[in-house]
Design goal:
With 169 residues, the protein is of the alpha+beta class. The protein has helices at 10-17, 67-80, 85-91, 94-100, 109-130, 144-163, and strands spanning 30-36, 41-49, 56-64. It starts with 9 loop residues before the first helix and ends in a 6-residue tail after the last helix.
C-alpha cells in the first residue's frame, strides 16, 4: 500500500521545520505529559507560571510525533504566553488551535486535541499541587481534551504491557 503525503498547509510545515519554544525548561512551575508513544504522538509541556498573577510567563515543549503534533504544540505555546491560567483554560480549544495554524487534515485533528489536553492537564496539576481550594472555573470532571489525553496514555500503557516479553513480566 502506498502512502500519500498529507496536505499540510505552509504554516504547519513552517512550525514543523522551525518550531517555536522547543526544548526542556529547567525552572518550570509544572510539567505535563500527554500522548501515545505507540502511535508516535507525545507532548511534554513546561510552563513557568507567575505565582502572584497566575500568568503563564513562559511555555516550552518537547514533542515526538508527526508534523501536525509538533506544529500544534508549537502554536499552543505561542497562544498561551501572557495569558492567565484561567484565560488559557477557558479560551484555548483544539478548534482554535487548528484555526490558528490554518487547518489540519481531519485525520490529524487529534493532534490539536492532544495539545490542548496536555495544557489543561498541566493547569489542573499546577493547581492541585498548590494544595489550596481549586477555583470555581476549574471543572471537577475532566474536559473532553483531558480525557482524550488520558485515554491515549492508558492505551499506550496497555499496549506496552502486551508487548513486554514473558520473562520481564
Amino acid at each position: 500500500m502506498s502512502r500519500i503525503p498529507l496536505p499540510y498547509n505552509p504554516k504547519v510545515m513552517e512550525l514543523f521545520r522551525n518550531p517555536k519554544n522547543l526544548g526542556k525548561m529547567e525552572d518550570a512551575s509544572v510539567i505535563a505529559v500527554a500522548g501515545n508513544p505507540a502511535c508516535g504522538d507525545m507532548i511534554t509541556f513546561y510552563l513557568k507560571i507567575n505565582e502572584a498573577t497566575q500568568i503563564i510567563e513562559k511555555a516550552q515543549f518537547e514533542s515526538y510525533g508527526c508534523a501536525a503534533n509538533i506544529a500544534t504544540a508549537s502554536i499552543v505555546t505561542e497562544m498561551i504566553k501572557g495569558l492567565t491560567i484561567e484565560q488559557t483554560w477557558n479560551d484555548i480549544t483544539w478548534k482554535k488551535v487548528t484555526e490558528e495554524i490554518g487547518g489540519l487534515p481531519s485525520v490529524k485533528f487529534h493532534c490539536g486535541v492532544l495539545a490542548v489536553g496536555a495544557i489543561k492537564r498541566a493547569i489542573r496539576q499546577y493547581l492541585t499541587q498548590k494544595g489550596t481550594a481549586l477555583p470555581d472555573w476549574l471543572p471537577k470532571d475532566f474536559t473532553f481534551e483531558e480525557k482524550q489525553a488520558l485515554e491515549e496514555e492508558e492505551l499506550a500503557k496497555t499496549l506496552s504491557k502486551r508487548q513486554t516479553p514473558e520473562a520481564e513480566k
